[in-house]
Amino acid sequence: MHPAMADSLKRLLKRLSEDKRCLGIFLSGSYAKQTEDEYSDLDLVVVAERSGYTEFRDSLRRVCEEIMGSIPAWLPEGETPEAVNYAFLFEAEDGIFLYDVYVIKDKDLPNCHPYDAKHILFDRTGVLAGSVKERRPAGFNADDLLRMVTCYWVYMYLNGKYLKRSDVYKLLYIQQTLFQDHIAVLHAFCPDKDWTWWAVNVKYLTKTKREEMLIYFKNTTPKDIASVLKKEMDIFSQDAKKACLKYGLEYPADAEKAVRKHLVEFFSNK
Q1: Which CATH code of 1.10.3680, 1.20.120, 1.10.8, 1.20.1640 fits the domain covering 142-269?
Q2: Which residues, 6+ apart, have CB-to-CB distance to 33 below 8 Å?
């Protein structure tokens, strides 16, 4: 942890531990997973006593400013009656740093994302220790595999009409969707991993596979996108067939055959 971040956390914990409306705090994100480095932002979950939740939530920015000084950006996200996330930047002598602070009512703690006892930084009444839910990967759901594969081929088909229209922005959207579907299928080969954000998920893949997946990001014109579609189809087809074989499922070959025929005919007539 960067020294500026460590110092701010120490002072924030002290201040909030003195506020009786704050029942506890635990680490989340990369620090909880022990994958952090000096560039990581700090993710905290702050549990507030329900009767004082609104006042506590509304006072948090002022508290952070008193501790950390200037806060050039304060971003509320995903607010509900029970919780809100604040992403904010603070300035120190040697840089600008990011916090993600998720504030939640104590009654909603059972619905919060999992955490281990070792992640607890402060626990006034033992409510955190009593609600520990150790992080267990959800695992790969083989029941969704055929839907994922079919989804890929349906979206691959859409390239045809958007290439006819030279609609580069819809083509870029399709490339993003194909990438996401492909990543979802690759979970089949890492079923014990917690598949969450794709930028984290790719780290579980081999170096060769990570390099292959970059094909979805390299092209920004209709002509260039058209030039890689066959290779994209070939790579996905190989992965999807292996995944279906692994889980004893019949690969939807008719979907692939129809889409390949559609795109080949399109290119031959263009």
Answers
A1: 1.20.120
A2: none
